[in-house]
């Protein structure tokens, strides 16, 4: 290392710092002037204060027994400047009240809000924690487009492998107790914890990463309209967090919130609810209907004829869901973002296909009484409770409610009431659908457009009760079951008419898609790339000492760069021995990669050494933020120190 410094001279850069790095410097010196003893934390991919860096301010306590649990407040440097006065007041409060609270750290993260959302500052801080499980982390999430005065809590997200992650009930309980103590009215973003646990919605990449790494964390929205509430909350939270129990890690829970009263429904309570509910349902479904009553023999006989409808309906619906999915993907391009339309188009196609297939029932001898189909409904809804509880236990509540609606109305005969009942069966699903579509992102869009076989199978079970309700409606309209005049010829004619209606609907859907839905919104990348031609400049200078070649690679750009990735490749030797920035040489034997952090200095000076007398191919990739789209520009040069030095 000493030889490396001698050969390259001082490693202190003379480059101009980016505006984000200047922000880090200003904040650091500002907090230093206030005697808050800030600490610099260099980002892990650069380890240089020529790049933006984290700033950490810690407030210790006077009770050593409280040091097991710590609290960290995570705030992005990009917007902390507008709230400095609020933070100063909070810091003054913490300095005066150092008892009855855990150790408090404020981490002002750098490079978290870049266009690529790499959250480099957060990742650097989390990697430095010795005991993640005992650090309660509160993330203040700012959105410049959000002006809501509401106090909004985000409890979960989606990990990098698309698995759902949720904060523990003890973390959320601590937050809610603080809100209740300060009479702060709050709401939960996403409403339903099931959607987070299943990975269906993701509203905060930072929180998703924190939970993925096993950190007890939660996020609170910070807007220009709720500043007073948030900092009022933070002041009380500092002492309330003393009671946080890190040993409680339950994530399979739900929340019932009424005014200032909050009830947590734990996993254990859900298990008890399921056992009691299923015991009652089995008794009502099988005991009363088949054992007792004057028509029990007839009911059993009808059930023997009708029970195959359940597995047939599931299989047929599954097949048509897959066909409808492929048809929908043909109609709508991959860049379309109207997820609600895609969802309902897929369902409508499926129902139309099922109706077309159902015409074949006119030549079979299915029961014609509505009672047996009401009984089949109870069976399917009971099965659904087991199936969806295995996916996520609290989902059982949705299907228990559906079962209650079905059981109470199973003997209804009037057509108008049956139709109303079918709409009532939708009620338990509506809140979930509304929340899902409101927070849907590109992953959710892809989930609906390219649904897996497993999800389509679950979906088919959820649709079967509605298909059986359609059978009950068909019975009242006298279009279900074998008819004396039904022939194969008439059935084929009806099938052709139905198929024609489906084709007309598809044509109308295509026209609607072309006229109403957004067109392909791909950015004009070629134009942007043309504008970026010759924008990147690479220059090198060389030195040799004691059998080593020392290279100073200067990377310069005519417009601000988001970040650089530099790859050094050698044919038969290790391409690098030492460098002034961290690099990864584990990916391949003769390749060294510099994945530098966002917002580099201008120009960037990369200094490295390698064994003399061999050639290195240097590929530099510059990433630019052009109109909120990240575009890359690549440039390659060959480095051979011995040739350039005239050896």
Q: Please mark out the parts with pLDDT under 50 across 5 or more consecutive residues, or reply none.
A: 513-529
Beta strands, count: 21
Q: Which CATH first-tier class of the largest domain would you pick? A: Alpha Beta
Give me the CATH superfamily of the largest domain.
Answer: Zn peptidases
Task: Specify the helix fraction band.
Answer: 40-55%
Looking at CATH, which topology of the largest domain would you report?
Aminopeptidase
> Largest beta sheet: what is the strand line-up?
1-2-4-3-5-10-6-9
Strand content: 15-25%
Describe the structure.
By secondary structure, this protein is of the alpha+beta class. It has 3 domains: 12-248, Zn peptidases (Aminopeptidase); 280-516, no CATH class; 530-644, Immunoglobulin-like (Sandwich). It has 22 helices and 21 strands. The strands form 5 sheets. The protein has an 8-stranded mixed sheet, sandwiched between helices. It has a 5-stranded antiparallel sheet with strand order 17-18-15-20-21. Strands 13-14-19-16 form a 4-stranded antiparallel sheet. A hairpin with a 2-residue loop joins strand 20 and strand 21.
């Amino acid at each position: 290392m000493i030889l490396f410094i001698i050969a390259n001279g001082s490693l202190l850069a003379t480059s101009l710092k980016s505006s984000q790095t200047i922000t880090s410097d200003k904040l650091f010196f500002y907090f230093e002037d206030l005697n808050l003893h800030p600490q610099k934390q260099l980002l892990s991919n650069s380890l240089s204060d020529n790049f933006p860096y984290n700033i950490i301010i810690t407030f210790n306590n006077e009770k050593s027994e409280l040091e097991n649990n710590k609290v960290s407040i995570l705030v992005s440097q990009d917007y902390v400047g507008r709230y400095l006065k609020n933070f100063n007041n909070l810091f003054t409060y913490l300095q005066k009240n150092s008892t009855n609270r855990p150790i408090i750290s404020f981490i002002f993260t750098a490079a978290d809000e870049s266009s690529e959302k790499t959250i480099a500052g957060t990742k650097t801080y989390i990697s430095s924690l010795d005991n993640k499980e005992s650090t309660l982390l509160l993330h203040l999430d700012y959105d410049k487009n959000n002006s809501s005065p509401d106090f909004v809590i985000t409890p979960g997200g989606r990990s990098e492998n698309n698995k759902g992650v949720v904060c523990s009930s003890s973390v959320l309980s601590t937050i809610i107790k603080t809100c209740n103590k300060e009479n702060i009215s709050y709401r939960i973003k996403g409403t339903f914890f099931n959607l987070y646990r299943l990975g269906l919605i993701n509203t905060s990449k930072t929180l998703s990463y924190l939970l993925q790494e096993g950190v007890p964390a939660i996020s609170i929205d910070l807007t220009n309209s709720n500043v007073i509430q948030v900092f009022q909350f933070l002041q009380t939270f500092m002492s309330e967090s003393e009671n946080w129990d890190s040993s409680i890690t339950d994530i399979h829970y739900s929340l019932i919130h009424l005014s200032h009263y909050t009830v947590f429904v734990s996993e254990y309570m859900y298990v008890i609810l399921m056992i009691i509910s299923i015991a009652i349902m089995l008794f009502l479904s099988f005991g009363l209907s088949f054992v007792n009553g004057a028509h029990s023999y007839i009911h059993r006989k009808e059930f023997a004829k009708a029970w195959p409808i359940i597995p047939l309906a599931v299989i047929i619906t599954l097949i048509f869901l897959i066909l409808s999915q492929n048809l929908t993907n043909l109609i709508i391009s991959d860049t379309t973002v109207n997820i609600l339309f895609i969802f309902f188009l897929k369902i409508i196609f499926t129902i139309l296909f099922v109706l077309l297939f159902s015409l074949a029932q006119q030549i079979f001898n299915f029961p014609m009484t509505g009672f047996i189909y009401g009984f089949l409904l109870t069976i399917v809804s009971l099965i659904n409770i087991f199936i969806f509880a295995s996916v996520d236990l609290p989902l059982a509540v949705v299907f228990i409610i559906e079962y209650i609606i079905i059981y109470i109305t199973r003997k209804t005969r009037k057509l108008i009431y049956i139709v109303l009942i079918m709409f009532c069966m939708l009620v338990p699903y509506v809140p979930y659908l509304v929340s899902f579509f409101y927070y849907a992102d590109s992953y959710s869009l892809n989930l609906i457009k390219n649904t897996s076989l497993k999800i389509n199978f679950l979906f088919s079970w959820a649709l079967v009760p509605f298909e059986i309700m359609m059978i009950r409606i068909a019975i009242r309209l006298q279009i279900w079951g074998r008819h004396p005049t039904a022939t194969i010829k008439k059935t084929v004619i009806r099938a052709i008419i139905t198929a024609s209606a489906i084709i007309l609907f598809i044509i109308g859907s295509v026209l609607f898609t072309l006229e109403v839905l957004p067109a392909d919104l791909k950015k004009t990348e070629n134009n942007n790339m043309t504008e970026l031609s010759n924008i990147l400049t690479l220059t090198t200078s060389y030195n040799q000492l004691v059998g080593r070649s020392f290279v100073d690679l200067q990377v310069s750009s005519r417009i601000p760069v988001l970040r650089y990735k530099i790859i050094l490749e050698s044919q038969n030797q290790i391409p690098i021995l030492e460098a002034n920035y961290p690099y990864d040489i584990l990916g391949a034997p003769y390749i060294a990669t510099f994945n530098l952090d966002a917002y580099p200095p201008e120009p960037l000076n990369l200094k490295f050494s390698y064994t003399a007398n061999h050639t290195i191919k240097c590929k530099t990739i510059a990433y630019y933020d052009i109109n909120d789209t990240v575009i890359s520009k690549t440039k390659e040069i060959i480095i051979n120190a011995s040739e350039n030095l005239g050896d």
